[in-house]
Design a protein that fits this description.
CATH class: Alpha Beta
Number of domains: 1
Radius of gyration: 16 Å
Strand content: 15-25%
GO molecular function: coenzyme F420 binding; cupric reductase (NADH) activity; ferric-chelate reductase (NADPH) activity; NADP binding; oxidoreductase activity, acting on NAD(P)H
Structural class: alpha/beta
InterPro entries: NAD(P)-bd_dom_sf (IPR036291), NpdG (IPR010185), P5C_Rdtase_cat_N (IPR028939), STEAP_metalloreductase (IPR051267)
Distance between the termini: 9 Å
Strand order of the largest sheet: 3-2-1-4-5-8
Keywords: Oxidoreductase
Number of strands: 10
Oligomer: single chain
Helix content: 25-40%
GO biological process, one term: copper ion import
Protein name: NADPH-dependent F420 reductase
Length: 228
């Protein structure tokens, strides 16, 4: 959902890198972006695993997907998504700080814990995973998005429309417009601006509530914003 007066670059001229793209969420997003005709590079801890996943998804979608290690993917991407486990989030970003300088980085990470009562949000010193990314990647433009999208739906080739809104958080209008446009490339999905980075905590934490919803109702619930 972009505004008419926004100058959003043509996404088809950009390379979308997905760090942690061999996990369910990253793999699902990469699949959908490739199906939308975008050029995608999957990053993984090892070049071999990244390449194998890239080849698998290229064969499944017919899209322009390749895979490699996280560093090479970070270097290759114009727009870089971080879809890695919370454990090690800060260490990975520290190691990629130089490679990500000057780029728009989309943090999709949810700091969650799990116990016998289910999922719950973890406290983050910086406030949220998105704010932690911004504190580390001082030469990048950090946006938070894609926190509440079901990996199961993203990965299911039988699901042709992913009916959900993507809440996009950031301080730079051009960057949030770009990420909203990225969300809009997936059928059924809509990017919605949801505030500045300081508001990312509650969006990341909402994933714990959605996990509870999904377990109770055996569903793959997402978020829809009304009246816009």
């Amino acid at each position: 959902m972009t505004t008419a007066d926004s100058a959003v670059p043509d996404l088809k001229n950009l390379t979308i890198s997905v760090l942690g793209g061999t996990g369910p969420q990253g793999r699902g997003l990469a699949r959908r972006f490739a199906q939308a005709g975008l050029t995608v590079v999957i990053g993984s801890r090892t070049q071999e695993k990244g390449a194998a996943t890239g080849a698998e998804l290229a064969a499944a979608t017919g899209g322009a997907i390749t895979g490699t290690d996280n560093l090479s993917a970070a270097e290759a991407g114009d727009l870089v998504l971080v879809v890695v486990p919370w454990e090690g989030h800060d260490q990975l970003l520290e190691s990629l700080k130089q490679a990500l300088a000057g780029k728009v980085v989309v943090d999709c990470v949810n700091p969650l814990g799990f116990d016998k009562q289910g999922a719950y949000a973890l406290k983050v010193e910086e406030g949220s995973a998105t704010e932690q990314a911004a504190a580390i990647l001082t030469e990048s433009t950090v946006v938070g998005a894609f926190h509440n999208v079901s990996a199961t739906l993203l990965e299911d080739p039988e699901v042709t429309s992913v009916e959900t809104d993507v809440l996009v958080l950031g301080d730079e209008r051009e960057a949030t417009d770009l990420v909203q446009a990225l969300a809009d490339t997936v059928p059924g999905m809509r990017g919605v601006y949801a505030g500045r980075r300081r508001n990312a905590h509650q969006v990341e934490a909402l994933t714990a509530n959605l996990i509870s919803v999904n377990r109770r109702y055996k569903a793959h619930a997402g978020v829809r914003v009304t009246d816009i």
